[in-house]
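Help!! Second protein's tokens look totally different from the first
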Amino acid sequence: MHIERTRENVFTVTATGQELSSLVGAARMALEVMQHAAGERPPPEAMELLERVLGDFDRSRARMTDVSAD
């Protein structure tokens, strides 16, 4: 994996399929744990951000799959 800072708070990540799969899988597990947390809930902003990032990933992956099918 290679990470570069493109500009303030913007990064370019080069990852293998396995590395990306591991990161996304860990994010999905973290979201599930947060959604089912007993007691004190995580900050709603953190959950919303993670949901948005995973949604963006899923939409990007779907577009990439659609383009590949053409």
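Here's the second one for comparison:
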Amino acid sequence: MLFLLFSILIGGLLIGGLGRLVVPGPNPIGFWWTLACGVGGSLIGGVIVRALFLNPARHWLITLVLEVLAAALLVVLVSKRRRRRA
């Protein structure tokens, strides 16, 4: 159980970091928001791929691309919200 949680956090951080790289310009979000966007993007991308394909494991590249794009969308939304607050 601990390994699963650790792998979700590391995977979320990687996906969130890639999502931040996709979005141009400054992203005024910190470590925890990057992690949250990565985990959220992974969940959203995974659900989409699961809905499109019967065997998502065979389409790992499409899964990765959709996860990063979903994380990038979340980064944009969080960045806009944080800019409005400041």
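Reply: Different proteins will give different token patterns, so don't panic. The CA atoms of residues 13 and 32 lie 9 Å apart.
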